[in-house]
Amino acid sequence: MIKIFFLYVLFIFSHSFVNSQSTIGLDGVMLRSLDGDDVSRIFILDTSDSPPSFDFRGFSNQGTILNNSNIFEKDAVAYKLSSTLGLASIPLTFYFQYFNNSDYQLIYDDINQFIPNCITSIFMPTFIIEYEEINDQDGFQYGSDQFLGYVDLAQLQYKFDYKYINYKTPSFFEDAMVFQLNVTSIGDYENLITIVLYFSSYPVYLGDGKIMSSELLRFDILINDYFNSDINKQSSSECIVNSNGNGNDSDGGDDDGDDGSGSPIKIGCISTGASNNLNSKLAVTSFFAVLEYDISMNNNNKININGFPLAASFSWLPTAKVNVDNEISVANIYTDTHNINTNDAIIFGSNFVPVAITGNVNSKFLIQSFDVERPNVVLWTSYFGIPSKHDFDNSSNNINSTFSFNLIIIIMSLILFTY
C-alpha cells in the first residue's frame, strides 16, 4: 500500500509523548525551526507484510541540504528495510540513501546511475553472541575469549508495526510527524529482539539532547531475556558450542569447525540457547557498508563516510541501558572492528553483504560488546544518516537521559506491544 504525507512546519512546537503502541519510545521531543541548514520533507511510504519490508522516501519541499536557498532544486532521502532479495533470505538490512538531484530520487543501488553527492549505505545486524571475557581485553574478541553461544538473527522470523506521532502547529499547513517502526522477532523466539526506528519530516530535538535531522534514522535495539529458556530456546540438540569454544583447536584435531572450535557458527542453527556460565556477557555482530566512498572509525563510536561533502555516518551511544536482576543501570559498549575479508567476519555473515549491496563496496565488520554479566535486558541507541549541522556530534551523551525510568520499568516487565 502507498501513503503520501505532505509535511511542513513554520513554528517551534514543544511536545513530549510516551508511545501508546510500544514500551520503547522517545521520552521528549521538540520541533526546531528551519534556519537554512536543513529542509522539511514530503514522505512516500511503501510497505509489505510478507516478507516484512518498508521503503520510505522523503523529498525536500524546496531546496537541498547542500543549497537550501534554491527553490528549484530538490534532494531526497530513502530509508529502506529488507529481509529478502529476490527469492533469497538475508538478515534484516537497513538502507540509508541520499540523492542531491531530483532526477535520481527514485533510483536504488544502480551503479550505472551513481552520481556525485549520492550515498547508498547499509547496516546489517547478524548475531547475538554470548561469551566469557578471558583475555583481559575489553569486549569480545573472537578466537581469544570464550565463545559460549549465539542467536542467528538472519533465521528469526519478524513482524513490524508502525505509527505516526503528530505535532499540531498554529499554522494552516499539515502536521509535522515523527515516524516510528517496531520490528520484533516472533514465533519460537517471540520478543527476543526488538528494533525500533525513528525518523522525522522535520528537524527535532530528542530526549537525549541530540538533534535528529530529516536525513537521520535512529535505532533503538533491545535484547530481551536472552538467558530465559522460554524466550531463547535451543533450536536443536545438535546446536551447541563445545567446551573449548574459543577458536583454538586445543585437542589437536583438524580445525574444521564441526565441533565448534574452529567455526562455532553452524549452518541451520538458530540458537544454542543460553549457557549456565555466571560470567557470561553479550555482544552483537553486524556489518556496515557503503557504495563508492571510503569509511573510517572515529572515537570508537562512529563510522564516517569519507570524501562526501555532508557528515554522513553511522554512530552509536557509548553506553547501553541494562537490567540485571531488576536493577537498572548502564553498561559500557566496547566496539571491535575488522575489514570484511577477515575470517571472523566471514563466519559471522559477511557473505550476505554483497547480496544486499553491489558495486564498489567498502565495509566494516563490528562486534559491539556490553560490559555487564548476564543482563535480562540490553537497550542501546544508534544513528544512521546525515546528522544536523547543529548537533556538534553529541552522540556521546549518556543514554540515561534518553528513556524515562517508568518506560524502563515497563520494558523489564516484558510488556512490549499493545495491539
Automatic annotation (TrEMBL):
Signal peptide: 1-20
Region feature (Disordered): 238-258
UniProt keyword terms in alphabetical order: Signal
Domain of life: Eukaryota
Name the record gives this protein: Uncharacterized protein
Source organism of the structure: Dictyostelium discoideum (Social amoeba)
